[in-house]
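Example S7 (structure tokens).
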């Protein structure tokens, strides 16, 4: 099964609080978005990569990512994540009949086994995403009052890449746009359209870089100082 990866890097990174969009921050000598692109370049099933970046970064990102084999396009994103994904989807070659992977550029330490596992799952079922079990007890809280304890065994944290057969994602997105619904990830669009999404094991090393603490953790990982 062949795959095209859409790297979403068009967010502002407000929780990081840096003076540049998060995906362009340095991680041990390479920007996050370049590290993420290199991870997909290395995965055998991935034959094309699309990067979706802030409007002001299109030129710089095109130069930065130009050496990445299989780079198809670098395009500006939109206000919401789903708007950015849609811009990326427009760049998938027409007639492509493999798996589309959508990946957060903010997860630069994704590896080949995880990518290939998602591609296989999506190829078989139509949609797949990596999940991690929750370790903490989870409460529903309203204002400052605990309302309920949820059963942790029924819950999981979703990672990316999320993988879909192209027609599955395209039709789920059409329905979300038609219904004017905001989805927080791509799988949510497929879930609400009634499609099955396979959960495959995620990886602790595939952590999303959200805050300066996450970036410091990732520096340690890359430099070999901190175990996964
Ligand atoms: N993203 C995007 N377009 C948007 C919003 C998010 O391409 N309109 C991307 C981000 O660049 C990131 C991924 O989606 O790679 C996951 O989002 P998140 O971690 O929330 O990143 P940001 O939105 O940039 O960060 P923050 O929410 O702290 O502003
Ligand atoms: Mg965000």
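Recovered sequence:
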């Amino acid at each position: 099964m062949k795959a095209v990866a859409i790297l979403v890097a068009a967010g502002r990174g407000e929780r990081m609080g840096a003076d540049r969009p998060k995906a362009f921050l340095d991680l041990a000598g390479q920007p996050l978005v370049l590290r993420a692109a290199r991870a997909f370049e290395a995965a055998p099933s991935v034959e094309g990569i699309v990067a979706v970046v802030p409007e002001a970064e299109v030129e710089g990102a095109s130069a930065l990512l130009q050496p990445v084999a299989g780079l198809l396009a670098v395009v500006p994103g939109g206000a919401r994540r789903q708007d950015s994904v849609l811009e990326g989807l427009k760049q998938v070659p027409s007639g492509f009949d493999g798996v589309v992977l959508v990946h957060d550029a903010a997860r630069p330490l994704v590896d080949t086994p995880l990518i290939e596992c998602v591609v296989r799952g999506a190829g078989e079922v139509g949609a797949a995403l990596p999940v991690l079990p929750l370790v903490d007890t989870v409460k529903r809280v309203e204002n400052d009052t605990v309302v309920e304890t949820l059963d942790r065994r029924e819950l999981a944290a979703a990672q990316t890449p999320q993988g879909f057969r192209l027609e599955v994602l395209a039709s789920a997105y059409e329905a979300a746009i038609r219904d004017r619904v905001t989805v927080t990830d791509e799988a949510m669009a497929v879930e609400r359209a009634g499609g099955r999404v396979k959960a495959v094991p995620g990886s602790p090393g595939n952590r999303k870089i959200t805050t300066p603490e996450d970036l410091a953790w990732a520096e340690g990982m890359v430099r070999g100082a901190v175990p996964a």
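Notes on this example. The pocket of magnesium ion (ligand 2) is lined by residues 11 (CB under 6 Å).
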